[in-house]
C-alpha cells in the first residue's frame, strides 16, 4: 500500500504541468464510452460493416476453409506468425488493387510509421501536405530525410517546391491523403500523380478515408504510378489493421526494413478473415456504398436549406466538418447536440490548428434523412 502511494507521488512534475496546461486550455482528453442510443455521427464505420452479420458468417467460412483452429497469430510475420490465410489475403488484395504486392500491417498508424521511416534515406527529401495525419508526421520524424510541408491541397505550392529541390536530393517522396481525416476534402489524385511524374518524385497516398466512401471498389487504375497506397481496415471495412500496396520491390524492402512490420505480433487470423470478408462484401454488394453516397448528397443539400454551408469545409466525402473556433465553444455545441441525441464530436486543438476547432459529422450508410434534418436544424439554431 505504501509503495503504491510513493509511486503516485513520483509522477514527474514536468508531465503534471503538461496535463495542467491541457486542462487550462480546455483540450484535456478523457476516454468516453460511446452511447449506443445516440445517432451515430462519429464512428468511422461508414458502411456499417462492423455490425454486418453476413460479413461475420463469411469470415467464419474463411476460417473453416483454412481449417484454422488458431485465433491468434502466434508470432511475428518473420517468425511463426506467417500463416496461409494472411499470405493468400495479400495476394487477393494485390489483385484487387491492381498492384504487384500488398503487405498487411497491424494498423494504419503502423503502416505509415513503418513505410515512411524506413524508405526515406539521409540524402532524400519528403514533401508532405501540411494537414497530414499524425501517423504520417510521426513516420517523417523517425526518418533521417529532410522534410518540408506544402500548403494544404495546393499542387501549385507542391510543384514550386519540387522545382526548387529537383536534383538536390537523391529521391523525393511526396506524401498526402486522399480524403483528409479532419477536413473531409480531397486531393486531386490524378493531378498529383502527374506533378510527381513530371519531377520524378515517388508518390505516397494515404487512402484511409477514401476507400468505401468515394469508391466501392477502390481498384482504380493507377497502374504503377503510385509508389505506395496505404489503405486501412478500421474505417469503411469496420474492422482493424491496414495494408500497403505497391511494387514487389517495395514489399521486399518493407519486410526487411519496416520496424513496425518486423517487431510486432502479426494480426490474428480472426481479424484477417473478417477483413477479407469485408473486402469481398464491399466489392459484390454495392447497396451500402450507394446509401452512403445518397446520404452525403442529402446532407449537402440540407446544409444549404439551413444556411450552414459557409461553416462547413467543402467536402464530397463522409467527413463533414463545421469550423467554429475555440475549444470551449465547440465542446459546448457538441454537448448540446449530444443532449438532443446526436453523437457529433468536437475536434479540438492541438488535433486541428488553433482557431479551426470544429464539429466533425461522420456520415454513414445507416444514417437517415430525418436524423440529418433534425441535427442540422438544431445546429443552425445553436450557431445563429
Ligand atoms: C488519414 C489516416 N491515416 C492513418 C490513420 C491510422 O489508421 P489506424 O486507425 O488504422 O491506425 C488514420 C486514422 O485515424 C487516418 O485518419
Automatic annotation (TrEMBL):
Q: Which InterPro entries match?
A: Aminotrans_II_pyridoxalP_BS, Aminotransferase_I/II_large, AON_synthase_class-II, PyrdxlP-dep_Trfase, PyrdxlP-dep_Trfase_major, PyrdxlP-dep_Trfase_small
Which pathway, per its entry?
A: Lipid metabolism
What SUPFAM superfamilies does this protein map onto?
PLP-dependent transferases
GO terms of molecular function: pyridoxal phosphate binding; transferase activity
Pfam families, per database record: Aminotran_1_2
Task: Tell whether Transferase is among the UniProt keywords.
Answer: yes
Q: Name the keywords, alphabetized.
A: Pyridoxal phosphate, Transferase
Which GO terms fall under biological process for this protein? biotin biosynthetic process
Q: Which family does it belong to?
A: Belongs to the class-II pyridoxal-phosphate-dependent aminotransferase family. BioF subfamily.
Protein name according to UniProt: 8-amino-7-oxononanoate synthase BioF
Species annotation: Psychroflexus torquis (strain ATCC 700755 / CIP 106069 / ACAM 623)
